[in-house]
Amino acid sequence: MESTVLSACLLLLLLGWGDGAVLPPDVLDTAPEPSMVELIQLFQDFMSRFNKTYSNPEEQHRRLLIFRQNLATARALEEAGQGLAQFGVTRFSDLTEEEFRAQLLSPMPGHTLRPAAQSPSKPAPPSCDWRKAGAVTPAKDQGLCGSCWAFAAVANIESLWFIRHQDLYNLSVQQVLDCSRLQVACGGGFPWDAFTVAWMYGLTQEEQYPYIGCQSLCKSGHQAVASIKIFQFLSSDEKKLAAHIATRGPVTVGINANLLQFYVEGIITKNMTCHCNPEEINHAVLLVGYGLAPEKKTPYWIVKNSWGPEWGEEGFFRIYRGGNACGIASLPVTAMVHEGAFDAAIESCPP
Ligand SMILES: *[C@@H]1O[C@H](CO)[C@@H](O)[C@H](O)[C@H]1NC(C)=O
Ligand SMILES: *[C@@H]1O[C@H](CO)[C@@H](O)[C@H](O)[C@H]1NC(C)=O
Ligand SMILES: *[C@@H]1O[C@H](CO)[C@@H](O)[C@H](O)[C@H]1NC(C)=O
């Protein structure tokens, strides 16, 4: 029974991944089924790589079984991904899908809240990556706090501030958690809760007000280095969204993040998205650019997550662009930062 759900293809892929060697799918498909011994080896590697300990042997065994189930899910996702994305072991591989959602995600009912707003009508250039302009700070780690909404909004302000003023700061997410009006800030919120804090107080630097991953008292007296004048909802039309990003900068969006529990790297393709209902937004992230993969001419978004730089593609992921994949275009919102009279704005996004 042990070997039926875990595919050898995934096993080899996982073993190869740490060394940067990913075997081509046709090699993997001929590999034999792994044994329980191999599964345990994989699980031990997982435990040491992510520094996991369990309170007792029963719990460890239970986590092993969840791990095995998750490998099977990752394998199924990878098959649906047509070779463009790798799914496998992540630091969430010992969590059930329910635990993952409860610990990291927070449902965001958003559809009724979205008024229309103006977006540029100019067509979008074929590709754009604000990371190449130095406009995006490294991906942060929200830890076990449902603070994605604050990370996504703060990352939006960081990038827009840089594009407008050429000063890149890591801005304080903790300040946003502490000073928001939310009773339980780690229980989830909306990006506009964070924009409201930035609008009222301005944001100080992360160094001055470091992240502790739980809500505390709002501390004043820190020097604000960035502030916003307003925030606005954008059109869900992905062509307009791309044009907006290329000309103005990164945009905060909601997403159904269920698939991301298993994401390793690559582009999450269109026909995987039946695994993430676009109506069930439960995470907030930042669109920092987009492109077109030469393989199968797949258009994709480049997205900044808040699960640390070790997760995904140095903390980022790519997902199909054009079909509201996992609801990624259903809730775009952005701040508008204050403009300094003498500052020059960066005019366009590097391709
Ligand atoms: C691993 O966990 C132990 C105990 O929780 C902790 O003391 C140690 O700093 C952790 N190491 C790393 C690399 O995270
Ligand atoms: C995904 O879509 C492609 C065509 O776009 C199709 O050939 C393939 O069978 C699909 N895969 C799955 C698992 O549905
Ligand atoms: C932001 O913080 C990261 C660590 O998360 C650090 O590597 C980076 O240099 C910082 N960037 C700035 C502009 O302070």
TrEMBL record:
Pfam families: Inhibitor_I29, Peptidase_C1. One of its GO terms (molecular function) is cysteine-type peptidase activity. SMART domains: Inhibitor_I29, Pept_C1. GO terms for biological process: proteolysis. Residues 124-336 form the Peptidase C1A papain C-terminal domain. Residues 1-20 form the signal peptide. Residues 111-130 are annotated as: Disordered. Keywords: Disulfide bond, Hydrolase, Protease, Signal, Thiol protease, Zymogen. InterPro entries: Papain-like_cys_pep_sf, Pept_asp_AS, Pept_cys_AS, Pept_his_AS, Peptidase_C1A, Peptidase_C1A_C, Peptidase_C1A_papain-like, Prot_inhib_I29. Residues 43-100 form the Cathepsin propeptide inhibitor domain. Belongs to the peptidase C1 family. This is Cathepsin W-like. It comes from Alligator sinensis (Chinese alligator).
